[in-house]
Amino acid sequence: MNTQKLIDTAKALVAADKGLLAMDESIPTCNERFARLGIPQTEETRRAYREWVMTTPALGECISGAILCAEAIRQEKMDGTPFAKAIANDDMIPGVKVDSGAKDMAGHPGEKITESLDGLQGRLAEYFRLGARFAKWRAVFAVGEGIPSRDCIEANTQLLARCAALCQEVGLVPVVEPEVLMDGAHTLERCGEATEEILRTMFSQLYNERVMLEGTLLVPNMVLPGSTCPTQNTVNEVADATVKCLLRAAPAAVPGIAFLSGGQSGELATARLNAMNVRFKSRLPWALAFSFARAIQQPALDIWRGKQANVLAAQQELYHRAWCNRAARSGTYEVAMEK
Fold first, then answer.
1. Which site among 19, 120, 234, 336 is 20 to 30 Å from 100 CA-CA?
2. Per-residue pLDDT tens for 253-302?
3. Non-local CB neighbours of 324 within 8 Å, separated by 6+ positions
4. What is the rounded average pLDDT for all residues in the chain?
5. What DSSP assignment string belongs to 121-181?
6. Are 317 and 303 within 8 A, CB to CB?
7. What does the buried/exposed string (b/e) look like for 109-148 if buried means 16 or more CB atoms within 10 Å of the residue's CB?
8. Are 123 and 87 in contact (CB under 8 A)?
9. What DSSP string runs through 207-252?
């Protein structure tokens, strides 16, 4: 393990007010989004979509790293350039999602577990050879009556930690992604309690697995009320609750925290990230960045609709959303920028 290289890569992923672009949707998820817009659900269409996203002019000004799925990291541009190399050529760091998705957790109704450790070490080594320099593992946690349970929290965080250790062994920066879902009527306070418990448990597991935190990134949810909660808190209330939770649970050794959008609209996710950096940036031990998927890509996908003639307009919209999020990292985002 090259300790300094891991540290340098982790720092680079949250440097210069940039963030991550999560273009790692599973094939079924990508096909579902295509179907809603009448786009053919084929491997070639997915390849073409990913190509125009990653080759958006000047995208590297706002995006430090792009996360690919297992299909995408093996794909190439029309000119034969592997996607990972194309990303690196545009001053971004290629990454890859390495879990196979959340499954129902036996004996725990309403809860999920991510189990993809079988053969993972070999896959990680292959991804490194293909050009990836960081790897993401996602675990999801629902909030409801009696959940998330301790069993669910401990099982999922142990898997996150084990994956992180394996990543560092082969030279990949682990991106640990414990996500408390927005679905439900839970309050902001309940989300904060669940998030803090999950993070505390996960970092304990990371210590147990001897994961080097300086070469690790945290990608969590923001602390939010459930989507059907009667009280939808203000942007500043979300910012305060999120930073308070992280200060209690995230060690200062972690170089950066890149938030998920988690189903928020692009504009709202950007405004909340901006508020955190306006109110707290100068006092925090870690950088606060973004790891957005739909919040950056969906408006552009709505424009593209599978038509080559729409690519330039779609790329302009994609860059705009990325640029707004870079502004949010520096605390200079304003709603007027959306016009």
1. 19
2. 999 999 999 999 999 999 999 999 999 999 999 999 999 999 999 999 99
3. 266, 270, 333, 337, 338
4. 97
5. HHHHHHHHHHT--EEEEEEEE--BTTBS-HHHHHHHHHHHHHHHHHHHHHTPEEEEEEEE-
6. yes
7. ebbbbbebeeebeebbeebbebbbbbbbbbbbbbbbeebb
8. no
9. HHTT--GGG-EE--------TT-S----HHHHHHHHHHHHHHHS-T
The DSSP secondary structure of 63-91, one letter per residue, reads EEEEEE-TTGGG-B-TTS-BHHHHHHHTT
Chain centre to alpha carbon of residue 202: 17
Phi then psi dihedrals of residue 65, to 5 deg: -150, 145
Q: Which domains does the chain have, with CATH numbers?
A: 3-328 (3.20.20.70)
- CB-based contacts of 108, cutoff 8 Å, min separation 6: 147, 149, 151, 152
